[in-house]
Amino acid sequence: MNTTRVDWAAVKADFPVLQRMIDNQRLVYLDSANTSQKSNAVIDAMTDFMSNGYAPINRSAYRMAGEATDLFEGARSKLQRFINAHSAHEVVFTKNATESLNLIAQTWGRANLSKDDVVVLTHMEHHANIVPWHMLVAERGIELRWIPLTADGQLDLSNLSALLDGAKVLSFTAMSNVLGTITPAKQLCDAAHAAGAIAIVDACQYVPHNVTDVQAWGADFVTFSGHKMVGPSGVGVLWGREELLEAMPPFLGGGNMIADVRLDGFTTAELPSKFEAGTPPIVEVIGLGAAVDYLTNIGMANIRHHEMELTEYALSTLNVRYGDDIVIHGPRNVEVRGAVLSFAFRDIHPHDISQILDEKNVCVRAGHHCAKPLMKLLGANATARASFYIYNDQTDADALADALDGASDIFGV
Amino acid sequence: MPGLEDLYREIILDHYRTPRNRGELAPPAVMAEGHNPLCGDEITIYAQVENGVLVDVKVSGQGCSISQSSASMMSQAVKGKSLAEIQALVHRFKVMMSIEEDADDAPAVEVKMGDLEALQGVVKFPVRIKCAILSWNTLLQALDNASA
User: Fold this and answer.
1) Rg over CA atoms, chain A
2) Among the CATH numbers 3.40.50.150, 3.30.70.240, 3.90.1150.10, 3.30.470.20, which is that of A8-30+299-411?
3) In chain B, what are the domain boundaries?
4) Shortest CA distance from B126: residue in chain A
């Protein structure tokens, strides 16, 4: 990966919320795997559109409506280039990655899966890539198989071909929201295709932090959310190969997704409108387009490099300082992990850790991270999770390490 | 911002470190499971009710200091009480957690909060009210099961 020099302090300064002081302490935001903060570029793009040009898209003849449509479709083209999709109409706007995965299960899944058909998932999936398939188990009697994990939290692919034997779907995360593990997406897509299955990549944690090339992966569907990549909440993306999207039945019915409606039926619109019923999140899509520009200007390779360095620093700082008192889940090698650190600390419950860190304005997630099957494997009901992004630096990792001392003080451990 | 000392009172930490009435009860005791879907905490309450009195109660499960200490204190407070007394205590506790309104009419049964007063600080940390209340709702569920 070619990287260039980035002024990371200037990046941090682009995020106004990080200027906020609470109790005279700066904000140390380490919850970006949950949702990311918003840059001025995104806030300004959304404000400008609402202040100066808000209008419907695709359905009115006046100039301002045309401008809005251009902005909206311009954002789609930005997303297309960002993930190297073959064409812009393969990019479908949804509410979030969860809706994108549900869309696939409810449309492609219902059209193609019946009793005893096999869907292969992994033990590190988010609930969003588990429950929609469980729903098809209940409705259709499909069978789920699970790729297990190695001791250090990577996918155990030693039995992959047997698991994929006869499968119709392999749906997996490109990066675990709990372990930070980056999975070998291209290898998995190839293996799925070799077995005659389609490959669905939940890239919700991956796209915000890495160069994404859906064609290089050879994926069939890729899903992600805008709000984890400095964009607003309320907009997500489903990318799918054109021939698959064309063949799928529609998802939600209503305005915009139709070519014709009669008393005796309807015909669907062309892609991508076919999957975009009703007025979409216009402002949010435009904000996401601004987010893509912002991230592209920094450079996704630079972002990945920055986060690898930061992850290495955070892992070694916490390990040196706390030794065996801290257990950080997932692979130690930052080549195969993103900037997500789920940890257990001195038998203190994650909820209490999070509460005590909050006293120092250090914001981390505590809980099961919507991955209960994985938590069960880890032998924990919950973990604390610190996750880093472009606006974090070594001082944030230091603040986390310092704040953990406070937890020891209160619980006397 | 309220200080952490309001939340982590010594008596709370004592109940967390040394939880009372831990364990299980065999049938005919009834049980109920409670989950806090936000944080993954799980709690199981076992209740043995005889002639309208909760003669024994046990708590199992995992959770944070607030949910575990609340369960421990609750088990002490309700053991040996009549169902009417327990209903009144649950109401008092929920009022303290600001999730139920205080009724104007005087309670039919006198309620002593005792150690439970230590949990008053939780209300200053709204996110944690769910932790404190989990065992109480689970107890109500168990008592419902007992009368079903």
Assistant:
1) 22
2) 3.90.1150.10
3) 4-147
4) A355
Residue B24: how many other CB atoms lie within 10 Å: 11
Please state the domain extents for chain A: 8-30+299-411, 44-297
Taking only the tens place, the pLDDT of each residue in A83-104 is 999 999 999 999 999 999 999 9
Note whether A351 contacts B41, CB cutoff 8 Å.
Answer: yes
- Cβ atoms A202, A126 nearer than 8 A: yes
Q: Which fold has domain B4-147?
A: Sufe protein. Chain: A (3.90.1010)
- Asked if the Cβ–Cβ distance from A349 to B63 is below 8 Å, we say yes
The Cα–Cα gap between B104 and A194 comes to 71
Which pLDDT score is estimated for B135? 96
Write out pLDDT tens, residues A191-214: 999 999 999 999 999 999 999 999
What kind of fold does domain A44-297 have according to CATH? Aspartate Aminotransferase; domain 2 (3.40.640)
Number of H helices, E strands in chain B: 5, 3
For CA atoms A216, A220, A226, A229, the dihedral sign is negative
Tell me which residue of A283, A364, A355 sits closest to A50, measured CA to CA: A283
Contact, A365 vs A282, CB < 8 A?
no
Distance from CA of B114 to the nearest CA of A (A): 23
Pairing type for strands A28-29 and A362-363 reads parallel
User: What is the C-alpha separation between A121 and B104, in angstroms, rounded?
Assistant: 55
For A373, nearest residue in chain B (alpha carbons): B40
Q: Does A352 touch chain B (CB under 8 A)?
A: yes
pLDDT at A408: 80
- b/e map A68-96, b = 16+ CB within 10 Å: bbebbbebbebbbebbebeebbbbbbbbb
Q: How far is Cα A3 from Cα A12, in angstroms, rounded to an integer?
A: 19
pLDDT tens, A34-80?
999 999 999 999 999 999 999 999 888 899 999 999 999 999 999 99
pTM: 0.93
Using alpha carbons only, how large is chain B's radius of gyration in Å? 15
User: Per the CB < 8 Å rule, is A381 touching B64?
Assistant: no
Q: If you count DSSP H runs as helices and E runs as strands, how many of each does chain A have, helices first?
A: 15, 17
Is A370 a catalytic site residue?
A: yes
CA-to-CA separations, A83 to A78, A223, A236, in angstroms, rounded:
9, 11, 13
> Quick check: A384 contacting B, CB < 8 Å?
no
Q: How is residue A306 written in tokens?
A: 């920055």
Q: Could you tell me what percentage of chain A is helix, strand and coil, using 3-state DSSP and rounding each to the nearest 5?
A: 45, 20, 35
Hey, is A235 helix, strand or coil?
A: coil
Comparing CB atoms, the residue among B7, B38, B64 nearest residue A349 is: B64
Q: By C-alpha distance, which of A177, A109, A175 is closest to A144? A: A109
Contact between chains at B64 and A367 (C-beta distance less than 8 A): no
Could you tell me if residue A256 is left (phi over 0), alpha (psi between -120 and 50 degrees) or otherwise beta? Answer: left
